[in-house]
Amino acid sequence: MTGGELVKFLESTGFRVTRVKGSHVRLVAADGRATTVPIHAHRQLPKGLLHGIIHELGMDRDDFFRLWSCYEQI
User: Which domain does 52 fall in, by range?
Assistant: First the structure.
């Protein structure tokens, strides 16, 4: 997935964009969880970075990808 796709997905799960600085978007949830997602010209996020973001959000990888698969079908 690209950074832009991840931002749209996180917004659909309740996160909101609080700032954009250069090619990085900061998202925050109502419960205080926050992360920064790089947006680099439709390039795929590296696997390690994506897993780091998922960990930063306090989510289980399986749960994240289950939600992602439901989101893609919409």
Answer: 3-72
